Amino acid sequence: MSDTAATGRSADVRRMTFDDNALLPVLYGNHDRHLVRIEQLANVQLSARGNQLAIAGSADDAAIAHKAIAGLYERLKRGLSIEIADVDAAVRFARTGADGAEGDGIRTRRRTVQARSPGQRTYLTALRERDMVFALGPAGSGKTYLAVAMGVSLLLAGKVERIVLSRPAVEAGERLGFLPGDMKEKIDPYLRPLYDALHDMLPAEQIANRMESGEIEIAPLAFMRGRTLAHCFVILDEAQNTTPMQMRMFLTRLGEGSRMVITGDPSQTDLPGGQRSGLADAVDTLKDVEGVRFIRLTSKDVVRHDLVTRIVEAYDARDKKAKA
Q1: pLDDT for the residue 174
Q2: In angstroms, how far is the first alpha carbon of the chain from the final one?
Q3: Which end of the chain is less congested by CB atoms within 10 angstroms, N or C?
């Protein structure tokens, strides 16, 4: 691939020449959907002819698009695939000046999970290096998904013996006793997001077998009391819905050879009566404790629908205005 550029007063035109035409249909996407997405995200105009691609826009925008496209092309040359989420991630990394996410992947049975923002990359680094990580951030920022991916990867590699996934069964003011069915049927709806993440990482049959053998355990927070969790990867999800006493109980379950990840969105607490969140209490209490890492993800790390990012930013702006 080679590049040329012509700069005017208000616009920059860059031309990229690719040396492997066979990769261009995948690079551009069906009906040029990847190019259209880059135009939207980077505010540029793209024009393809043969093995050349022209990028027109402001100097900064054209540079962002150029870096994103170059990264995607190199990804294809290494034999990796490209989805629309990879296009979004390439532009996101290019806009921050960071290199792409290749090399940060977590391998599972069904896919390789990669960071899709600089914040997620920092989070993955913390998951690899620390025994206890708190991940705080809005919905869609990958807090739980990346933690489950890391747990599955370590289990498959034999570095932990079990994965333990837990959530407090306190959401939207509902109480378990009023839900129909036996105990498993009562708690499964609260734990469904954890099941969904697992099914992205492992075939259904393997999940069932590993749950039956105890290698994967999914349980509400109340079931953790009195246990010592040794040689396992432990995740507490939706931790903003714990009380300080529950959080203290959970954190002290950490046993020999184990790692623990606590995820939550401080802005979405469902505790009744304005009760203090165990997540907020832990952040204040443990902020200076050696070996504990706090990762704060933001709307810039949201990798769901674009509208989710704008919704998160709108609520954040309103909350800041209210505090001011």
Answers
A1: 43
A2: 51
A3: C
Separation CA 144–CA 128 (nearest Å): 15
Q: In what order do the strands lie in the sheet with 132-136?
A: 216-220, 162-167, 232-236, 259-264, 132-136, 292-296
CA distances in angstroms from 299 to 119, 253, 309, listed in the order given: 10, 32, 5
Taking only the tens place, the pLDDT of each residue in 80-96 is: 888 888 898 888 888 87
66 has a pLDDT exceeding 90: yes
Residue whose C-alpha is closest to residue 297's, from 192, 172, 144? 144
For residues 191 and 37, give the distance between their C-alpha atoms in angstroms, rounded to a whole number.
34
Give the pLDDT of residue 43: 93
The DSSP-derived string for 136-164 is E--TTSSHHHHHHHHHHHHHHTTS-SEEE
Both tokens of residue 50? 């043969």
Biggest CA–CA distance in the chain, Å, is 70
Look at residue 230 in the predicted model and tell me its pLDDT: 95
Closest to 170 measured CA to CA, from 195, 186, 190:
190
Residue 201, SS3? Answer: helix
Global confidence as pTM: 0.77
Tell me the C-alpha distance between 295 and 276, whole Å: 21
**Helical ranges in 202-243 per DSSP H:** 204-213
**3-class DSSP state for residue 263?**
strand
Q: CA 96, 136, 249: angle at the middle one, nearest 5?
A: 155
Judge contact between 66 and 54, C-beta under 8 A. Answer: no
Q: Torsion-angle region of residue 227: left (phi > 0), alpha (psi -120 to 50) or beta?
A: beta
Cβ proximity of 81 and 114 under 8 Å: no
Least confident piece of the model among 13-27, 46-60, 87-101: 87-101
- The domains found in the chain, sorted by start residue, are 2-96 (3.30.1370.10), 106-323 (3.40.50.300)
Is residue 315 classed exposed, middle or buried when 0-12, 13-18 and 19+ CB atoms within 10 A define those classes?
A: middle
